[in-house]
Design a protein that fits this description.
The chain is 50% helix and 10% strand. By secondary structure, it is mainly alpha-helical. The chain is globular and about 50 Å long. GO terms for molecular function: metallopeptidase activity.
Length: 139
């Protein structure tokens, strides 16, 4: 690609990034997606200051994603009805990690973080999460 081809390029907007994240979710194995049930996906530039403070994170670029809710291993049918669990993806830290890595596509990185955060919901091991990533359909 010539230098001129890059002049019109720009980082994906929040809306475009959200579309990438939803495409990554849609490419995950169907059985895994069905099990996700009511998990809600959110995309923002950075985690909110309150979240960073609660986690003891000083640099907002250190947090690429976050699972918010009670994982399935701790839920009970006797629990009162709760709000849906959420997976947060943070665009700017993900873009920074993607640039620094240089070896994977942005879609692969989004899939990795998405599976990792949802994996917390299911209490999956790293090996199980890698198997799910490997079986994701390229978007």
């Amino acid at each position: 690609m010539s230098a001129a081809d890059w002049r019109a390029r720009r980082a994906p907007s929040l809306e475009e990034f959200d579309a990438l994240a939803r495409a990554a979710f849609d490419a995950l194995p169907e059985a895994f997606r069905r099990l996700c049930g009511n998990v809600v996906l959110h995309v923002a530039d950075f985690a909110e200051e309150e979240v960073l403070n609660e986690m003891g994170i000083d640099d907002p670029f250190e947090l690429t994603g976050l699972y918010e809710g009670v994982d399935l291993l701790e839920k009970s049918v006797s629990d009162p009805a709760a709000t849906p669990d959420h997976v947060h993806l943070y665009r700017r830290p993900l873009l920074e990690e993607w640039i620094e890595n240089g070896q994977i596509t942005l879609g692969e990185l989004i899939t990795h973080v998405l599976v990792h955060e949802i994996g917390h919901h299911f209490g999956l091991s790293d090996a199980e999460m890698h198997a799910i990533e490997d079986s994701a359909q390229p978007g």
